[in-house]
Amino acid sequence: MFGIQGRLTLLFVVIVTLVLGISGTYAQYSLGHELEVSSQRLRQGVLTRLQTSLPSALWDLDKAKVDNIVAAEMMPPELVSIRVYDTSVGLFSGKLRNENGSVSAIENDAAVGGTPVVADLAYRDSGAAGASLKPVIVGRVVVNFSRAQIDATLAAEVRRKVTEVLLLDLILVAALALSLRIVFDPLKQLRDGLFDLATRGSDEVEELPDNRHDELGEVIRGFNAIQRKVKSNIQRIREAEDEARKSAQTTTKALDDLRRTQESLLQAERLASLGGLVAGVAHEINTPVGIALTSASVLMEATEKVQLAVQDGNIKKSDITRYLETAAESTRLIMNNAYRAAHLIHSFKQIAVDQVSEARRRFELRDYINEVVSSLQPKLKKTRITVSIACPPDVMLDSYPGALAQVITNLTLNCVEHAFDPEDEGRIMIGVAQQGDWIEMQVTDNGKGIPPDMLDKVFDPFVTTRRGQGGTGLGLNIVFNLIAKQFGGSITVSSVLGQGASFVLRMPCVTPVDDATLHADARLHA
């Protein structure tokens, strides 16, 4: 496996090679195109000159002149041979380039290498009386061109480019090897120092030399500072361990005191919640009782008037009709408000008994949630918040209803107090789903949400955003402890700022019984 240094070197070499390869390919293509164009111009020029100068000499059968013209055109190295044919004689003259580059006459019509180009030689006698006659074909010329010069030039260019790429790659590798050592040598020292710090005792690890005055020197000095801090922390931990061993009995007593204090705070919070419930229900009962008393008073006055009319013998049918209407309306008001008061008392009675006794029993979840929410109506009616419940029927729990009421109450009131401003409209949703032997309860609001920096601390004790306004910071901590310890379940929270929060509770339908729970029940009953 390559290290970072090897991968960086390979990456740079590949990039440079690729760039130079693309550039070289384009240059090779351009050079080939230019050579082809130049060769085409050369062919066209040679043929044009031969077609211009050879016909008259061939017409006069002047071999010396033909030989001179052909020899003159054989100067470019791309020409392999020029052969001039007379229409009646055959091969009249010709020149051939030998392998050593010299030019000699062609004695016979043997095969010649290269690419042949054939052109007719037409003669026109400009001084004759019949100058307007068509030209006379007096012969033809065959010119053989070679691509060896083009191929050699392209091959040389390829070799030059390959050599250039290899040299640049070698220079780049050497330069990177030297420059990367400036970075990776100190990093290797840091790696070795970290490995020693992790595998050996901190007292045995020496600090790294920090005589550099660049960014890596700052990193090394930071490592040395961390190492000194680790040594200092280890020393303090050792001293704390020694102190803890010396004061083990004192610590045990402090832990017992802390546990008792926590239990007292929990009991005080529950009693405070119950006291608020009592005050709210008492205030709520006043309204239906007052209406019932007023209706009864009206009914009593109407009855006394009818009795007096009967005694005087002045009773009329209209008096009886009016009395019956009054009696019916008063009776309806008395019955409705008495039923309302009875319902509040029933809900309060069940919740209050559960809160005080902490007894375990079997109960139906949906009805119990409705009772808990009904008991919170005195507080909810002062807000513009609605609570909706979505729980399937016949979900039975064998658990502690009082603790569950405390959980639902704390979560609901936490939403009321923290998720909404006093005049805001809002909604709290309590949803329940049964999953085998477990239930999942979700308490969700559409309020302000929880800030990200508070999300991990909402279940910590004494964490509140309403300190000095009556908030103790124990509500959600009590919920967490009840769910985790008493119900054997779990609770999580998620929130998006400005879009509300969601608390998800998972607990078994049958709460497990352990020794800690039995001792807790015994202490509560005591």
From TrEMBL:
Q: Where is the HAMP domain?
A: 181-235
Reactions catalysed, semicolon-separated, are: ATP + protein L-histidine = ADP + protein N-phospho-L-histidine
Protein name (database record): histidine kinase
Q: What does the UniProt keyword field contain? A: Kinase, Phosphoprotein, Transferase
Record's InterPro entries? HAMP_dom, HATPase_C_sf, HATPase_dom, His_kinase_dom, HisK_dim/P_dom, HisK_dim/P_sf, Sig_transdc_His_kin-like_C
Q: What residues does the Histidine kinase domain cover?
A: 280-511
Leading EC class:
transferase
Please tell me whether the keyword Transferase is annotated for this protein. Answer: yes
Q: Please report the organism this UniProt entry assigns to the protein.
A: Duganella aceris
